[in-house]
## 1
Amino acid sequence: MNAQNAATAELTMRTDALEQAVTLAGDRVDGDVARRVSRTVAGARERLALGVDHTLVALVGGTGSGKSSLFNAIAGLDFADVGVRRPTTAEVTACVWGGTGQALLDWLGVASDRRIERESALDGDAEAPLRGLVLLDLPDHDSIEQAHRVIVDRLLPMVDLLVWVVDPQKYADDALHSGYLQHLVGHESAMVVVLNHIDTVRPEMREELAADVSRLLVEDGLTGVPVTVASAREGLGIADIRTRLVDVVGRRSTAAVRVGAELNDAAALLARAVDVPARPRAPLPVDAVVDDLVAAAGLLAVADAISAVVRGASGAVPAPGPVQPDSVDIARSRWLDSLDGRAPEEWLADVARRVATVDRLRLAVDEALSAVALTARRSRLAVTLSAVAVVAVAVGVAAAVVAAGWWRVHDLTDRFPFPVWALAASAFAVAVALVALAAAARRSAARRRSAAVLRDGSDRLRAVVRTFLAEPTAAVLDERDRVHELTEVARTSRSAEPSPVSVPTVASPS
């Protein structure tokens, strides 16, 4: 992939990213910003459709400068009109290397009968270094026809290289210097001056004449503009000019540079519109809002009541809720207030629109609380231990009666008085221990039942907060982050090679 094709692929990718960004941002950015970015996207699409993989080089000069002859000599074709009686170029003529470039030439206003494709199968690879070049022969800038000057002024800002063709007899013409050259200070890298018809000048005078042209350019404020001599008639300097054109073809086109700069400016504008002061993004306050709703629903009191019933207290277990609208409103407001500074106001307003309303959130909270399992049955282990304790007490009482002689069983009391008392004491001790264990089992069961209610209720409320608050909020913030990422893609150029500076429109000579 050559530099121009790579530029097209890169600019297309950046344009796509910017279009996605402004579309995703929608009405959450200022309307003027959105319109400016959308216009940039549309303009980039239009220019990419025309193609930025061509290098535009324009031959510009006055009447009789020999532009058309030079055009034919560079192209190696006898195509451009060469005047005889009145050498005036009236229409734009174009020669394209390596493709027709029809869309671009239509846009440039080049008539269909003023176009020619230079590269052909007969050339082999001889013309390959110039592939992508569009060479334009512009109307004479000093023509008496106002329409000619309009064409010149319209096309100048679009070209990658301006080749000013001057005649040895007219290179100091004020119309050239005051009307055009003096307005191009700062754009020397996109210019070259060709002193044509050099065959009409004595060889010993040519170097001095070229130096005088350079001097006048410096007086115009143009430094470093190359000056070369040529003769289209004798072929002098044509190879040097073609070599320079090969170098220009290897750069990014002015169209690509301009589209890239416009994309960069629009992306930066959109990035500023969605940017916020740099600050770490804290986790969303899900747990804090859940705690607020737990308190508002009276879930702690319900858990305590269940704990009391499990421990043996009498009474009914109250149901949690319903939650009052004011409490839900406070929790929702706390959520929205926590987002301050995370995104621009338009995005936070979108969050407020997307999260559940107070009424919808309250209904969801009540539905979640109604599904909480309120288990208040007593501990089976405690009941079992209590039953065994009763049995132990009964055994102890029976043993004590026997040991006291109140109840005689086959002279058991007379034969084994001490062991029977020991049995009674042991039974009572076991009963006391079982009663203590049963109490401990009830307390443990009460804690578990209470914790289970709180956990179940908190989990259900957490699911409500995530569904109706966290997920809509995260969606908006993620969209804002995505817009920012896309703007970074849109203003990131992967081609670091410097390119020629585009040339602005200049005033026509008066």
## 2
Amino acid sequence: MRHSTGYPAVTGRCVGCGSPTAGGWLCPVCDEKARTRFLSLQETSSDHGYDSELFALLEQAEPRSFWFRARNELIVWCLEKYFSEAHELLEIGCGTGFVLQAIRRERPSMQITGLELFPEGIEVARRRLPRVRLLQLDARKMEFESDFDVVAALDTLEHIREDELVLERAASALRRGGGMLITVPQHPWLWGPADTYAHHERRYRAGELAAKIERAGLEVVRTTSFVSLLMPFLVASRWRPRFSGRTYDLARELYLPRRVDRAFELVGGLERALIKRGLSFPAGGSLLVVARKH
């Protein structure tokens, strides 16, 4: 894959000193400082699907939750398996930077960019990744052209009503031979209070997401469900509030008892080993898709 010598042009304001930064990544005033800070683009939107207050909770919960750790392991493996020659990666909706932190650990030479709508998320990501480029921007307004080898959208598309527009913009951001890593919540029949709480627009069917990806000009090369072996527990946790009348509690779901979390992590490890051997699960709480641009 081609490795570019320049950076995508951006316009906005440097959070380091407040100076305009039209035309490039470096701030004309604080110069080198801009390399280790982030640029805050002003074209954001109030039409969003997330509660910014959740970032503080996620910062504490992600390292302690088997689900976030297992997803990181899966994404890092996919990146090496399908895009081992990639030099530059963009994550759409990078949130607290938990995934990018794992990628940086495994691929320290990779040039990473995180894109996030909410400044609260960027603040957390900046603490975790002080030397990674972070942009505050609505994914629907991306204007990158062949700037990245990999674009990741990890549990992001379900929050965006115009998901096909974001896929089209992501495809434009990719170089030929590059590709996308996508994870989304799966199975509309699993819809429950957790989805409402998270401001999801939808849960996906595998065929539905594949069709949208292909319409964006990408070819699907691998699809598998995950959180598959734990489906009975997932179904119970999603449907219980429907019948109990109990208010959904995200913290209760994230902070499982240590023994339960460890047991679920072991099951996730087995599931991941099977995926690595080529097994694609037909059902599961989440869906992973790898796509490529030709």
## 3
Amino acid sequence: MRFLFLNIFIAVFLSCNAQDEKTGYVKKIMSLCPDADIIEIEVKEDYVEIEYLCGNKIVETGLTFDLKIIYNESETTIENKTLEIIHKKLNKRYFGWTIDEFALVEMPDTSFYKAEILRDGVEENLYFTLDGKYYKPQNVALNESWNIALLEKSDLYNKSAYKLTHPDKTYEMPEILTEISGIAALNESEIFCIQDEIGVVFRYNLQNEEINKMYRFTDVGDFEDITIADDKLNILRSDGTIFSIAYTYFSGISDSRILPLNCMNIEGLFYNKNENKYLIACKDQLMNEKSSLRHVYSLKENSSEHAKIDLVIDANEINTFFRNYYPELDAEVIQINPSAISVHPISGEIFVLSASNRLLAIYKNRQLECVYPLAEELFYKPEGLSFTENGDLFISSEGNKKGYTGGQIHYFKWENGLH
């Protein structure tokens, strides 16, 4: 009975806290529109989204958790002169698409138009300045203690072989790849991509900047990474299931197997052809292990042996590195939850990407060699990692559908001799 009362108390306490937070959001909206009729309040990972009716207009407002306005979005009409400019751009690059609606997005320091366009059941959002030019929105919910300006003052950061604050090229992904979660470079002109929710591999042409082929291998799921093994693509689902397809002669059929690992959430997969083995990175801690540890397993291709722990990642070690090499960043406790893993084709170093706290950790001979924080202005949610044969680096970043940040792939040339 005592436990029953305790559970009831906790449930009521949490419900009251949630209600108090919602009351604050409602009061904020009422200060913007006194007669607002709230339709929905949705708490996202790093901000709150409120949809409401103000007069006869539907408005969507994004708020930080301390009630600062990130954006207001509402339906709008555009004057004919600007509309003609936008239509010319759409006819040139999006011929055959239909405009569904326009919205005006107002942010503290700028305003722009959002156009929703449709074709064959696929929806995509495009953004324009108020005079009709293409516009690239920036990340709207910055909360890390570092940014590009701070990172560029770091001596260690400036010695990196990759200019991680200035990509040599950024590829803006189409709407279907807003939630891009894994990448694998086939060569310097093509890259395979997957996204979280759909069992489809997208073959993206880097020269034409468009999808030129799709491989449907299963239905919906939580797909996290992709790697190339000879003429096969291996796609990782977060529960440890690997789907394999032959991309050179895809018949529509995939094989699948479940990895026998002691972890519940797996996000990183890489095939190291030089050692004929897979590296599999667990995002969360193993059962009955320290909370600071994350493990990377190795598994030989076509082997009956069990997977072995290949690398142990220690968040405490990461935090010590931060204190020693980035004291100016004033970082609090750093978490590392691997979202992707890859091996540098020339140096042999293991690169581990973490969407949590946006980090790139590099290991040499299984020892931590360097850690690079990633600027939130560039990397909303870094999820994918891949190299070309000459050592050039691709990092993909998932977008935020409501945060006006699309999926992206950043390309960085390798300066030989440095990590």
## 4
Amino acid sequence: MRTIQRQMRRWGARRGSALVMVTLAAAVLATLSFSLLTVTLTTAREQQSSKEKMRARYVCEAALSDAVFAMATGGSGDLGNEEDPVAYGSGSYWVQATPAAADLTQLVATGREDRSGARLELTVQRTTSNLFEWGAFGDEGLLMDSNARVDSYVASLGSYVSQQVNGTGSSAYAKKNGDVGSNKNVVLKQNSKVYGDALPGPAGSTSVLGNAQVSGATAPLPELMEMPEIKVPIIASSGSLAVPSATPLVLPAGDYRYDDFVVKTGGSVQVTGPARLVFEDFHLESGSEFIVDASAGPVELYVDGDFVLDSNTLVASTTSTPADLRVNLLSDNVKDPSIQVQLDVVTFESNAQLYGTIYAPKTVIDIDSNFELFGSLIARRVVLDSNARVHYDESLATASSLTEVSYRTICWRILPFRP
């Protein structure tokens, strides 16, 4: 009996020891589990905080982008404030704009996302560009035949004739800012005259042959001039239209699109701006006219194919101001000998006149003798035939409707966030 009791006491002691070991193991495991859970929760919170901070940074970057866009469209750059921020997704922001120096603006954006925030500073410089700073410019070259002339005048000061007080006879001119240029070569043939600069591209040259004259500089441009693509507005077509001689066509302000558009001999078209007109082909027959009233806004023409001005035609605004009318030619009329295609036709015939700007980055434009352009011409290649005349309107260089404003980044940095 005593032996049995001793054995039972030994087994009880062993069970007690095992229970203690199990309890200790469970405690250690619980401690480890708690520690792991704590680490996991801490890591999750840190990751969540990091994500929120990153999203707050993205909100700031979006705020700066919105501020720059606002400035480019005439705003100051200030957007919202701390008491009334701008909502952005699940976050919000505000931007404070401060003029830093001439043409420099400092933008400070504060963004919030949940419990996090961020601040960024961006300094930008205002820059402006205007294609129409030339009397004539040819991307791939500019050629002036004998007796061709380019000079300048200021439309806001009156008619060209009233300012044509210099020189005599066929050499009479108004002002000397009728610059011509090219991204390649400029060639002036016998007796042609440029009252202004004649500037070739960086790797090009200006050839002044015989008694041709350039009143200004002929040094190469420091860099190539960009020829941006024309963006054509999407407008539903009204089909083809032929305007008869006896019945003028009157178009109120708005958007229009035609396929073949012809104004018959002696006919007339009157368009009130602001207006945008898109044509597949555009043809003014001899003696016809296309007149715009731009008192409420300019008129823009977009021509995909043929653009033909017959002799004695007139394209102008009621005030003969070149900034009132913009002609955009999409035609690519450069002949490729390897294929047979119907070439687009771009024709400016004798004794016709156009008051406006012409932009044709893919088009070779050959201006016939005695044609007069009052404004500016930018094309793929330009040929001014004998006795052709281009009178650059100096007002175009500063016309707000033709000037594109952009902002260049000068400095960008992260600022401490102040809750």
